[in-house]
């Protein structure tokens, strides 16, 4: 599961150089243009252990997952208009599904975030231009009104909210805003890439955001730079993903057509660990890259996955970083049993005990079970 996250960029234009250099600001630069052919990369080169957490199945099976969050020992998984919350052992705690036209409901709630410490779910109700906070009982405990054109919300520490603008018209003043729970604006980031579109094209979820430690990071659609927001809500450049002449510029966005895809790279997802970046982007098809932060080597992953040599299980493509220690992927239950018939699993001999554990799990899962969290411990 990978979502395309696109954003109207808001920040600095930095000098782009080769992947082995740093730019004038001393930022590390990782190249997304000059890439080698896809290579088979083993999961063991990144992680040293694997475990599985089947999610408890209730009255409904989670399908069509569109988002996952982790906070304080809880996972929140979005499927359609609902968000299901599980503890770190896979037990279902509660489900929020309040879509509707009533005063306690959200008309459209496809953007959310999660506070596991308080068991609260934040939902952006685009139909009523407000951010609602629900408790585990499904009651609204906070409402922030008059919030329009939101692409994404990210809950930060102390209850502050990082908002990314949805600006398909190209004339928005700000690209990002940080507010408190009263709706007061604390920090604004100017939109420096305004444009006048030939046709209106909506890029859903226009910003690739991720967390590492207590810091939030974001990468905008029309910028090559990853930016960091620290605990004091100060914003600074963190690294550069060099797209060179394939950057999605103001000119390309202005002249974008409904009949032809712009000649540009679109970064859709980023996960950062102490040693690596996992970057997903689109250009002539989806590419999943593993970047070594020490050497700046960028490897395009064959078949868009890490090949599982820890227990012979299914290929691994991370959806989430948890506690800076684990990479986590959500996998549908029915895929496990199918994998038992794969040549990779049949021929796997390196760790027979781990292979037997995988087989035991796969044989008891059915298509009527909820998905499974695959957790890989980072080296």
Q: Could you describe the 3D structure shown?
A:
- The chain has a single domain, classed as TolB, C-terminal domain (Neuraminidase, 6 Propeller).
- 8% of the residues lie in helices and 38% in strands.
- It contains 4 helices and 25 strands.
- With 379 residues, it is mainly β.
- The relative contact order is 0.19.
- The strands form 6 sheets. A 5-stranded mixed beta sheet has the order 1-18-17-16-15, with no helix packed on it. It has a 4-stranded antiparallel beta sheet with strand order 2-25-24-23, with no helix packed on it. A 4-stranded antiparallel beta sheet has the order 3-4-5-6, with no helix packed on it.
Could you please say which CATH topology applies here? Neuraminidase
Low-confidence stretches: 1-20
- Structural class computed from helices and strand pairing: mainly beta
Task: Specify the CATH homologous superfamily.
Answer: TolB, C-terminal domain
Q: Specify the CATH architecture.
A: 6 Propeller
CATH C-level category: Mainly Beta
Number of helices: 4
Number of domains: 1
* Overall spatial form: globular
Order of adjacent strands in the largest pleated sheet: 1-18-17-16-15
Mean pLDDT: 90
Element order: H for helix, E for strand = EEEEEEEEEEEEEEEEEEHEEEEEEHHHE
Q: Tell me the strand percentage band.
A: 35-45%
Rg = 21 Å
Task: Work out the helicity level.
Answer: under 10%
């Amino acid at each position: 599961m990978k979502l395309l996250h696109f954003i109207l960029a808001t920040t600095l234009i930095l000098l782009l150089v080769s992947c082995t250099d740093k730019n004038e600001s001393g930022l590390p630069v990782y190249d997304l243009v000059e890439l080698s052919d896809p290579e088979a990369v083993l999961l063991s080169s990144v992680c040293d252990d694997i475990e599985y957490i089947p999610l408890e199945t209730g009255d409904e099976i989670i399908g069509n997952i569109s988002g996952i969050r982790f906070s304080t020992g809880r996972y929140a998984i979005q499927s359609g208009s609902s968000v299901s919350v599980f503890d770190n052992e896979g037990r279902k705690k509660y489900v929020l599904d309040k879509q509707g036209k009533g005063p306690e409901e959200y008309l459209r709630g496809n953007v959310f975030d999660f506070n596991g410490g308080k068991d609260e779910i934040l939902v952006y109700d685009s139909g009523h231009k407000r951010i609602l906070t629900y408790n585990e009982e499904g009651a609204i405990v906070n409402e922030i009104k008059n919030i329009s054109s939101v692409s994404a919300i990210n809950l930060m520490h102390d209850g502050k909210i990082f908002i990314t603008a949805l600006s398909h018209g190209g004339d928005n003043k700000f690209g990002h805003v940080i507010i408190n729970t009263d709706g007061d604006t604390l920090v604004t980031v100017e939109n420096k890439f305004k444009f006048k579109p030939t046709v209106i094209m909506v890029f859903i979820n226009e910003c690739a955001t991720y967390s590492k430690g207590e810091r939030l990071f974001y990468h905008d659609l029309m910028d090559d730079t990853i930016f960091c927001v620290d605990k004091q809500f100060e914003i600074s450049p963190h690294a550069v993903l060099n797209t060179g002449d394939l950057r999605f510029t103001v000119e390309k966005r202005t002249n974008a057509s409904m009949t032809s895809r712009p000649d540009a790279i679109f970064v859709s997802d980023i996960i950062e660990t102490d040693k690596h970046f996992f970057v997903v982007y689109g250009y002539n098809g989806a590419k999943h890259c593993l970047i070594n932060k020490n050497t700046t080597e960028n490897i395009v992953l064959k078949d868009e996955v890490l090949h599982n040599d820890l227990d012979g299980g299914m290929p691994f493509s991370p959806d989430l970083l948890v506690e800076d220690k684990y990479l986590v992927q959500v996998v549908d239950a029915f895929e496990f049993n199918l994998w038992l018939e794969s040549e990779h699993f049949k021929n796997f001999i390196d760790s027979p005990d781990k292979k037997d554990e995988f087989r035991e799990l796969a044989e008891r899962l059915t298509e009527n079970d909820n998905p499974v969290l695959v957790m890989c411990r980072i080296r």
